[in-house]
Amino acid sequence: MAKLTDKTNSTTQVVEPESTTTGKGRPTPTRREREEANRRPLVATGKEAQKAQRARLAEQRDKARVGLANGEEKFLPERDKGPQRRFIRDYVDARYSVGEAMIPIMILVIVMSIVRVPVIQAVTLFVLWGFFLVAIADCLVAGHLVTKKLTEKYGAGAVQRGNRWYTAMRCMQIKPMRLPKPQVKRREFPTL
What we know:
The chain is mostly helical. It has a domain at 67-177. The chain has helices spanning 31-38, 47-70, 83-94, 102-114, 118-154, 163-171, and strands spanning 2-5, 12-15.
């Protein structure tokens, strides 16, 4: 220790050097203390955490729903992914399909079946079956046309399986109810 004297004051002051100890300044935690500090629940606990998790999941679902409706590739199910399926959707959405009228015709048939006149019921039944056969024929024609155009665009060996069924299912839906939502207007056929 060094003694310093102050000439104006007759008292002697002792100045200690700064501490030169090294280390962290606290004891090392035991293994049990470290394990307990690392333990945390896998599922959010507490009302605030659950509320935040629900909000986060709801936001993700909304994002996926909007992405599916807009036809964003990463939100589509496997059956709707790929350029060929996009071409089919655009082609079917650009044309008028007989199958689009299926639901209104079915409602009409239900209303007409309430009528207790046998002749009207028989005519309604024949109209329903005739419409159903015309809708199937329309789906077959649309499937053939789509397959022909896809073969022209991608080649015979590169055409994806199941395109005719995909075309038929899209043709049988009312245009506003289709998912992914139609991206083209009527008569705006996709180019090859």
